[in-house]
Design brief:
The chain is α/β, with parallel strands linked by helices. The chain contains 14 helices and eight strands. Strands 1, 2, 3, 4, 5, 6, 7 and 8 form an eight-stranded mixed β-sheet that branches. It is globular, with a radius of gyration of 22 Å. 39% of the residues are buried. The mean pLDDT is 92.
Length: 324
């Protein structure tokens, strides 16, 4: 397959051989049942070996996969009665960041999320999921509406970063993201953020301040992409694999560091291998998270959010009588 990743090549070749034997059996009426069974067992073992020992860079590759489910894929499978809302009421609409109102098992919720395209034409229209300032202002408008009417907010994060071009800077990219950070910190409704693929820099943070932060098993979340880090540190974006190995940007790493509250399992090989099953797991995490957060009052939700971010990382304070 054109979209198979390089480290999956041995498995793909083995499966192609199995398919070829099956075709040969049908066409020539020769029994290769034992040989097929042996190769299928070998394929299962190889699959477990490959996907059970993924490196950080391999996880990054899966997170970037062209067939990885998008926000709209999850909306279609998890929610009902979705109404997409458009525009920031300042400049325009941004297809790279979508949002609207829907129901989760009959409960009204507000959804915001980055949206990548399904093909080249759609990706160009959606700017490869890299939102402009109007995208973040649209998301803020919808989240403020959710806060006013008491609707939980569900945020799907999947972007390499906010759009860094001239047009974004002219329209106030940094201000738009900074405003979202401040406003999301003070909303009195539950906020659940889910990194479904890439979680790049301020582009991810712009809709990423929540009570719970979940990551799919093969997603990444960092202040900068491995390619960007390699270009800055070693002046060579081709060293992205080396950067990924040292940056601790994968879900398992960030869970150990206390940045992430929950890792959502993926099907063998990645979320794109079974989108329906993946959506079921994401929905389960959302439902369980909302059940926990719904017990808290508005002020308690703000305090919960504050304590979540306060405890990330470590720091020391100097004694008051310390002198140099």
């Amino acid at each position: 397959m054109a979209n198979d990743l390089s480290f999956e090549k041995p498995l793909v070749e083995l499966r192609n051989k199995i398919a070829e034997l099956r075709r040969f059996t049908e066409e020539k009426d020769i029994n290769f049942t034992d040989e097929i069974a042996r190769l299928e067992e070998k394929a299962r073992n190889l699959e477990k070996e490959i996907y059970g020992n993924l490196t950080p860079w391999q996880r990054v590759q899966i997170a970037k996969h062209l067939e990885r489910p998008t926000t709209l894929d999850y909306i279609e499978r998890i929610f009902t009665d979705f109404i997409e809302l458009h525009g920031d009421r300042v400049y325009g609409d941004d297809p790279a960041l979508i949002g609207g109102i829907a129901k989760l098992d009959g409960i009204p919720v507000t959804i915001v999320g980055h949206q990548k395209g399904k093909d080249t034409k759609d990706n160009i229209r959606r700017n490869f999921g890299m939102a402009h300032p109007e995208g973040y202002r649209k998301a803020l408008r919808l989240m403020q509406q959710a806060d006013k009417f008491g609707r939980p907010i569900i945020s799907f994060i999947n972007t390499a970063g906010a759009y860094p071009g001239k047009a974004g800077e002219e329209r106030g990219q940094s201000e738009a993201i900074a405003r979202n950070l401040r406003e999301m910190a003070g909303f009195k409704v539950p906020i659940i953020c889910i990194v479904t693929g890439e979680g790049g820099s301020g582009g991810a943070l712009g809709i990423g301040v929540g009570n719970h932060l979940y990551m799919l098993e093969n997603s990444w979340y960092s202040v900068i992409s491995p390619e960007g880090a390699a270009a800055l540190l070693w002046k060579d974006a081709g060293l992205a694999q080396r950067a990924a190995e040292t940056m601790r940007i994968t879900a398992p790493d960030l869970y150990k560091l206390g940045v992430v509250d929950r890792i959502i399992e993926e099907p063998m090989g990645g979320a794109h291998k079974n989108v329906d099953y993946q959506a079921t797991l994401v929905k389960q995490a959302i439902v369980e998270g909302l059940a926990e957060l719904s017990k808290l009052s508005g002020d308690e939700l703000i305090e919960h959010r504050y304590q979540k971010y306060k405890k990330i990382g470590s720091y020391v304070t100097l004694a008051e009588n310390y002198s140099v």
